[in-house]
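Extended Data, panel c. Modelled sequence:
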Amino acid sequence: MVLHGLPKIQNPMGWMQGPQAMPGFLQLLAALAEFGGGIALMLGFFTRLGALGIAITMAVAIFTAHAGDPFVAQGKRSFESAALYLAAASMLLLGGPGAYSVDYLFARRRQPSGSAATAGVR
């Protein structure tokens, strides 16, 4: 997602051209979601927020830019990659970050050491 959003973040309010162009503010949000959300997912920092931004952006892409395209089309336009990104972002949104994420480290640090939830677990 970071590489997909990189050219968009370089021209955040004017990367979309043609009849399907969205207002500049929405283009900015999509560029931030793809670039910033991709970085957030790589680091595992603000995982759910990054996944939410990517999921919304991919859902909009499926229903606007790829509307009418087949799911799998060899060598032609299709919405299969956007659907894959939407599914992956939805799983991270619902499941949250894993044990090897910055979010997990912060959650463990905030947890009191003598709480009932961790009593007896070592």
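The chain has a mean pLDDT of 87. This feature is highlighted in the accompanying rendering.
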